[in-house]
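Hey, weird one. I pasted the Adenylate kinase isoenzyme 6 homolog sequence into the form twice and got a warning about non-standard characters only the second time. First submission, copied straight from the form history:
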Amino acid sequence: MTTERQSPVIVITGTPGTGKSTHAEILANESPIPLRHINVSEFVKEHGLYEAFDEEWQSYTVDEDRLLDELEPLASAGGIILDWHTCEAFPERWADLVVVLRCDHTQLWERLEKRAYSLKKIQENNEAEIMQVVLEEARSSYAPEIVVELNSGSMEELEANVARIVEWIEAWRKDRGLA
Ligand SMILES: Nc1ncnc2c1ncn2[C@@H]1O[C@H](COP(=O)(O)OP(=O)(O)O)[C@@H](O)[C@H]1O
């Protein structure tokens, strides 16, 4: 039950390149309570939670059942930031806040080019951002009041977003008599 946790589970999601890891790292540093940043893609690799490596897309096919089993105790304990480009796999009860990062598609294109992604992968992600695939996914998976869409186009926006999430953490704790 989410109400038993002393510390929240914050999901930061968005198309690759929107700024999830950057936000999560800064948030973990600035949070008033300890939060562990879990980069789910790295977690999958480190724990071997994949079925195969897809050469065409240059990405791992995640074994979702095993991933969820590994994450379950961490989510139950709380105090984590789940950073992943999708969020619909996570059980609804895990999340206290779902942040969906957005970015202008031309800016996203440049960020992904710098990552040396293939043209096909850049196009696919760019289209997903334009079609707001991750936002729709978040909206159909979680209660509307916990889903927040934030722009991640500049450093100013990044700082404002982190400050806003820190405020949310303080309010979450206060509501539960923890602060
Ligand atoms: N709000 C922002 N303003 C400017 N650059 C950003 C912003 N968010 C992310 N970036 C840059 O975009 C790139 C991708 O960010 P990253 O956090 O790795 O994205 P993701 O984890 O969503 O794939 C990095 O070079 C990062 O510095």
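That's the output from the first submission. The warning seems to come from a hidden character in my clipboard, not from the data itself. Residues 7-169 form a domain with the Rossmann fold fold (CATH 3.40.50.300).
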